[in-house]
């Protein structure tokens, strides 16, 4: 099946939205979006307009939670049942707040799975939308992020600014 993609400019760099004819497959952060697109994929500059609109609202501080029901295509959450439980918990993390990997493990009733929660967090196909940037180390420090720690810091600062 052909993959379609769209580059979208955020205040923190270019994101890449990837879909097929039926599903929104992935959102790639600036560091990820620098890689060449998959062979045979086709650029569609106007693809997923509602996703782009919600991202614009998020970055402007006007949106605190994404409305997945209004996305142009449904998100395809491909992963193990454990990963999917982590990703669903990420969707519900409050805007402008952080939690530790351990607290997230507790939340999904897997208190000993802290490292697995971290791995699932890193495999999140929809960063920003499922807010993995809000998960931090138990000592309060920033730890790991697919877009780099500076982007994680910027996203948390953006949310803090709009919560004040």
Class derived from helix and strand content = alpha/beta
What is the total tally of β strands? Answer: 6
> What percentage of the residues does DSSP assign to strands (E)?
15-25%
Instruction: Note the main sheet.
Output: 4 strands, mixed
For the biggest β-sheet, the strand order reads 3-2-1-4
Shape: globular
Tell me the radius of gyration: 15 Å
**Helix/strand order:** EEEHEHHEHHEH
Mean pLDDT: 94
Task: Give a verbal description of the structure.
There is one protein chain. This protein is an alpha/beta fold. It contains 6 helices and 6 strands, in the order βββαβααβααβα. The strands form 2 sheets. It has a 4-stranded mixed sheet with strand order 3-2-1-4. The longest helix is centred in the last third of the chain and has 15 residues, at 149-163. The protein starts with a strand and ends with a helix. The model has no long low-confidence stretch (mean pLDDT 94).
């Amino acid at each position: 099946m052909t993959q379609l993609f769209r580059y979208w400019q955020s205040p923190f760099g270019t994101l890449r939205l990837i879909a097929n004819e039926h599903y929104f497959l992935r959102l790639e952060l600036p560091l990820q979006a620098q890689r060449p697109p998959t062979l045979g994929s086709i650029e569609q500059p106007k693809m997923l307009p509602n996703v782009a609109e919600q991202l614009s609202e998020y970055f402007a501080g006007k949106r605190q939670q994404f409305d997945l029901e209004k996305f142009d295509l449904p998100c395809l959450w491909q992963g193990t049942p454990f990963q999917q439980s982590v990703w669903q918990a990420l969707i519900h993390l409050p805007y402008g707040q952080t939690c530790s990997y351990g607290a997230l493990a507790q939340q999904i009733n897997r208190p000993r799975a802290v490292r697995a929660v971290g791995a699932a967090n890193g495999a999140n196909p929809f960063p920003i939308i499922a807010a993995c940037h809000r998960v931090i180390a138990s000592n309060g420090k920033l730890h790991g992020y697919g877009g780099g720690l500076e982007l994680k810091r910027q996203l948390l600062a953006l949310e803090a600014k709009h919560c004040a």
